[in-house]
Amino acid sequence: MVATRADITEEQRAGISIDFDPSGHYYPLDWVMALHEDPGAMRRLAASCHPLVRRCVARARHLPADVVERLARDDDRVVQLFLAESCDDAPADMLLRVWQWWTGSLTTPDRLHGHPNFPRRDLLRYVNDPNVRMRRLALDDPESSPELVETFSRDSNEEVRYRAASDPRLSPASAVRLLDDPHERVRYTAALHPRLPARVLIRLLRDADTAQTAARHPALPVRVMEQMLQRIQPPVPVTPGP
Prior knowledge:
Elements: H1 10-14, H2 30-33, H3 39-46, H4 51-58, H5 65-72, H6 77-86, H7 92-99, H8 132-135, H9 146-152, H10 158-165, H11 172-177, H12 184-191, H13 198-206, H14 211-214, H15 222-232
């Protein structure tokens, strides 16, 4: 507790022996968060010996370039995670490193992939990468092809097939094939694919196991949804007259 106080110097902080569990849950230090708009304080605290202080610096929305560079190379990977999650200035190379092991949080599920600095080009180099997290990025490259989507729809890894199932270039035949995928989230995504044939969508709507998912399909006409509602609504009871 003393080591995280605001009223001690960094030299004093360095002289305190701490037992810090990198995997533990810690609350942010309010006094560090309050200094996010102070570039000088951020430079000083980014060099702190205490990981929790550095983690709180990494939570700033914007940071000086030299601070970002330092934190992007921090030995504590949670510092890099917070930088990716919170800071709009996080560098592309660090974002790719974090992408390899972080799948997102409930509060910011697409923050990493949706980060303004996340690479959008030169991703085809990962098409054969053994790391599935990197391999799936190849479809984000603007030069990727529908043929690659088809190839990835047959990939041995669930996550790569899941990415292919969400790609609008996926062929109708492959969308139908992925309805029988062994993994539920792949089947769910395939059931919502915009190129799914109408006859297949009708079959899914008539099946009690798939009707709830199929009812969310974006191509379902309004008139069909209205007919479905009419069928499931209980009849209005008729009050007998006097």
